[in-house]
Amino acid sequence: MGDTMKSIDRIESCNLKIKKTSTTSKLCLWVVVLLLSVICLAASGCRAGETAQESRLRHKRILRVNTSLLLEDIDRFLMLDKPSGLSGHRLP
Question: What is the distance between the alpha carbons of residues 71 and 13, in angstroms, rounded to a whole number?
């Protein structure tokens, strides 16, 4: 009778360990799912409603503005943005 009680106690302790492990694994699974969803949302950004054409137009506008700003900087560096201080007449 004593051996039977010991074996029942062992089975119950094993069941408790299995339940604890399954609860922990469920928690870990939820944490992993939450992290993956946050990473996916962060990677997608805030432009969920943008079509492909709108994206192309936005890229073209950004390139146009960046190019014009670069050309203005080059003109300023080469001093082409101001009129020359030289005389327009030829000297003898």
Answer: 77
Q: Which one-letter amino acid corresponds to residue 59?
A: H
pLDDT tens digits for 39-88? Answer: 877 776 665 678 889 989 999 999 999 999 999 999 999 988 888 788 77
Residue 51 dihedral angles phi and psi, to the nearest 5° = -85, 175
Three-state SS annotation for the chain: CHHHHHHHHHHHHHHHHHHHHHHHHHHHHHHHHHHHHHHHHHHHCCCCCCCHHHHHHHHHHHHHHHHHHHHHHHHHHCCCCCCCCCCCCCCC
Task: Give Cβ neighbours of residue 75 (< 8 Å, ≥ 6 apart).
Answer: 81
Kindly list the distances between the CA atom of residue 59 and the CA atoms of 2, 49, 65, 75, 87, in Å, as whole numbers in the listed order: 80, 16, 10, 24, 44
**Whole-prediction pTM value?**
0.42
